[in-house]
Specification:
The protein is of the alpha/beta class. It has a single domain (6-237), classed as NAD(P)-binding Rossmann-like Domain (Rossmann fold). 48% of the residues lie in helices and 16% in strands. The chain contains eight helices and seven strands. Strands 3-2-1-4-5-6-7 form a seven-stranded parallel sheet, with helices on both faces. Strand 2 (30-35), helix 2 and strand 3 form a beta-alpha-beta unit. The two termini are 32 Å apart. The mean pLDDT is 97. It binds 1,4-dihydronicotinamide adenine dinucleotide (NAI). 1,4-dihydronicotinamide adenine dinucleotide (NAI) binds at residues 10-11, 13-17, 34-37, 62-65, 90-93, 113, 117, 140, 142, 185, 187-188, 190-193.
C-alpha cells in the first residue's frame, strides 16, 4: 500500500492522468495534480479523489515546459506534502500535421511540453529521490514513439525522446533504489482521441480488437509503482498494436 506516500501526476486533470491519479489514490497515495489550464476540471478530480479514497489531494496549475514554473511547483508540493515518492510525467499535447507543412512552432511546442516538461519535473524532483534513496518515475510515452506515425513527426519524436530519457534516468538512479519506466499506450479513448474519425479502421489494426481505456493505462502505472525489480522498461498498453 502507498499510505503516507505522495504521487505527483502531471496532466492529472483529465483523461489518462486523472485515471492514474485515482488509481494511486485507491492504493492510499496522497495526490498532487499538476495541470495547465482547466481549474474546474482539476478541482473536480481532486475533490472526488478526497471523497472517494480519504487521501490528501491538492492541485497545482503549472506549465511543465517552463523550467522555473516547474521548479516552483515541485517546491510547493514538497512544502505541502513533505516529500515526493512517485512522479508520473503524463502531461502531453498533439499538434498533428504532415512534416512538409509543419511549422517550427508546432514542432517545438510539442517537444517542449511532452519531452522538456518531463525533464523539468524529473530535474526538480531528483535531489529528493536521491536523498530518500527510493522512488518511482513513470513517463507516459506512446506507441508513436516506438513505431513512428505519419502526421506526428513532432509527437513521435517527443515520445521516442521520452524512452531515451527513461532509460538514462533509470541507469542514473538505479544505484539509489529509484526506478524509472515508460508506458507506451496505443489508442486510448480520451479527450485527445475522441474526435478521431477512423475508429473502425483503427480497431481493425489492433490484435485485441478494441480501443483501450484510461483505466488500462492506470493499471500499468500501478504495476510499475509496485514493481521494485523493473527499471528502464517500456511497457506497451496497446492491445498488441506495436508488437
Ligand atoms: P488529454 O489531452 O486528455 O490530457 C492532457 C493533460 O495534460 C491535461 O490534464 C492537461 O492539463 C495537461 N497538459 C497539457 N499541456 C500541459 C502543460 N504544458 N503543462 C502541464 N500540463 C499540461 O490527454 P490524454 O489522452 O489523457 O493523454 C495523456 C498522456 O498520454 C499524454 O502524454 C499523451 O501523449 C499520452 N498518450 C495518449 C494516448 C491516447 O490515445 N489518448 C495514446 C498514447 C499516449
Amino acid at each position: 500500500m502507498l499510505n503516507g506516500k505522495t504521487a505527483v501526476v502531471t496532466g492529472g486533470s483529465r483523461g489518462i492522468g486523472a485515471a492514474v491519479a485515482r488509481k494511486l489514490a485507491s492504493k492510499g497515495a496522497d495526490i498532487a495534480i499538476v495541470y495547465s489550464s482547466d481549474d474546474n476540471a482539476a478541482m473536480t478530480v481532486c475533490e472526488e479523489i478526497k471523497k472517494d479514497f480519504s487521501v490528501n489531494c491538492r492541485t497545482y496549475r503549472c506549465d511543465v515546459s517552463d523550467f522555473e514554473e516547474a521548479k516552483k511547483t515541485v517546491t510547493a508540493i514538497k512544502n505541502n506534502f513533505g516529500s515526493i515518492y512517485i512522479l508520473v510525467n503524463n502531461a502531453g499535447i498533439t499538434r498533428d500535421g504532415l512534416c512538409a507543412m509543419m511549422s517550427e512552432e508546432d514542432f517545438s511546442r510539442v517537444i517542449d511540453v511532452n519531452l522538456v516538461g518531463a525533464f523539468n519535473m524529473i530535474r526538480h524532483c531528483i535531489a529528493g529521490f536521491i536523498r530518500q534513496r527510493g522512488g518511482r518515475i513513470i513517463n507516459i510515452s506512446s506507441v508513436s514513439g516506438i513505431m513512428g506515425n505519419a502526421g506526428q513527426a513532432n509527437y513521435s519524436a517527443s515520445k521516442a525522446g521520452l524512452i531515451g530519457l527513461t532509460k538514462s534516468i533509470a541507469r542514473e538512479l538505479a544505484p539509489r533504489g529509484v526506478t524509472c519506466n515508460a508506458i507506451a499506450p496505443g489508442f486510448i479513448l480520451t479527450d485527445m482521441t475522441k474526435d478521431m474519425a477512423q475508429q473502425d479502421e483503427i480497431k481493425a489494426r489492433i490484435p485485441l480488437g478494441s480501443i483501450g481505456s484510461a483505466e488500462d493505462v492506470a493499471c500499468a502505472a500501478a504495476f510499475l509503482v509496485e514493481a521494485s525489480y523493473v527499471t528502464g522498461e517500456v511497457l506497451r498498453v496497446d492491445g498488441g498494436l506495436a508488437m
